[in-house]
Amino acid sequence: MNLRKKMVLALYILFLLVPIYWLLNMSFKSNTEILGGLTFWPQDFTLANYKVIFTDPSWYEGYLNSLYYVCLNTVISLTVALPAAYAFSRYRFLGDKHLFFWLLTNRMAPPAVFLLPFFQLYSSIGLFDTHIAVALAHCLFSVPLAVWILEGFMSGVPKEIDETAYIDGYSFPKFFVKIFIPLIGSGIGVTAFFCFMFSWVELLLARTLTSVNAKPIVAVMTRTVSASGIDWGVLAAAGVLTILPGMLVIWFVRNHVAKGFALGRV
Amino acid sequence: MNKVHNNKAWWLVLPVFLLVAFSAIVPMMTVVNYSVQDIFDPSTRIFVGFDWYKQVLQDPRLHDSLLRQFIYSGCVLLIEIPLGIAIALTMPTKGRWASLCLIVMAIPLLIPWNVVGTIWQIFGRADIGLLGWSLNEAGIDYNYASNTMDAWVTVLVMDVWHWTSLVALLCYSGLRAIPDVYYQAARIDRASAWAVFRHIQLPKMKSVLLIAVLLRFMDSFMIYTEPFVLTGGGPGNATTFLSQTLTKMAIGQFDLGPAAAFSLVYFLIILLLSWLFYTAMTHADKNR
Questions:
Q1: Is the peptide bond before A158 cis (omega within 30 degrees of 0)?
Q2: What is the pLDDT of residues B172-202, one digit of tens each?
Q3: Where exactly are the structural domains of chain A?
Q4: I need a labelling partner for B133 at 20 to 30 A (CA). Which of A45, A83, A163, A171 fits?
Q5: What is the ipTM of this complex?
Q6: In a domain, B9, yes or no
Q7: Where is the ABC transmembrane type-1 domain (chain A) (predicted)?
Q8: CATH of A55-261, one of 3.30.565.10, 1.10.3720.10, 3.40.50.720, 3.30.950.10
């Protein structure tokens, strides 16, 4: 690899990291220092901003709420998507191609379109402001995504394995759980990661479907804006804390990330 | 893989179908229902036919935000696709550096969208942000909150920051799928770097590039959170895109009828474009 290529890559990585460095830098400063002037490193290093978040229930409960509905969403999506992806990868059936395209359109549907009807649907069945409502709403895009990614991984498993297992006397459920699922373990991991991620980064639906009990962290963050101005330090600290979960889980799926983003189509 | 024809497979798909139908078809029917009625309160509603559609289609707000949306999505594609390809070509192929690159590049993709907005909001401010401060120190009068051009550039740069990695990661995995034999053959033929790119790398990246274009187009077409946090749609309406116009109408002013009609028009545009992309994708698969 020549020097010019390295320079381009280094510049790009720098471009990616500088805004994050600035956020991190700011989260360790007091508000007086932030507004007082530009410093490239916290002169007066403080953890006070993080302390606010970890001691105030309305802050840390936001994180717990988010994690709760995100995990719920991941579990629901995987449970329903596994058999469906198997069906798509192994069988042809009436309307399969149309169904597949229909699933894709849901991934492409703008959440803004569903805002109002979702609000009324979940209010009318008494699920407004519950974690399950947000989890179900996020299924709109996470289930199609899960089916697509899993189907990509499952198509890579030779069909002879299924046939051999049936000849050996395995029933379908037993074969599926005991043999097939372990075979596509990495695929399931990647799918779980993507369901987690897309549910974690979404704001619009999560904010609309909750008010108090299930309020997600992304909505709590708007609290830092008050009459006396914006509490920049706490806002930055809250931002840093929302980046952490993604960074923790990405390590495990680093080699499959691209395949997941390509909806299993690489 | 040759698949067996078996309609019993429907039983396996049924849970997905029911779940997605619950989240997609029921709300969609509600929208259709609203779009043809004038609703004063839950008990007083009048059927108005296609009036809302006529009103919405002539609404200058829709025209303006639709135009802005197309310009924005066009700019996003024009910048991110070539840049993503270029970055993918420079990435190391194996070893620790490759893993590190992948992880660093994936970071922006994993940040909640409103936090992306917040990061750039802080970063771009002239008083407390590194970018805004440096630009102003360099003698450029930069303020994304009051200057239309600056707001546009900031929103675009933010999108490039947020999503170029996706294009790069996709192209990277496409490049990894090229066997070494191809490169060896090219070396024997003394092919130039451009010829290698044009005749080996680009054709092999075609399918992933289609996915990248599809995803980037769709996601930029329904962008809401990031500009909402960064500029709030301003200055004026300069960065108010389709989703935001719609949300203002539905939640802000509670104009259910026009908002519903607007939603359906918006959804139909997206549906038409996805269908075009999907057909292109499946065609590319067939010709491979």
A1: no
A2: 888 887 888 888 888 898 888 888 888 888 8
A3: 1-46, 55-261
A4: A45
A5: 0.83
A6: no
A7: 63-253
A8: 1.10.3720.10
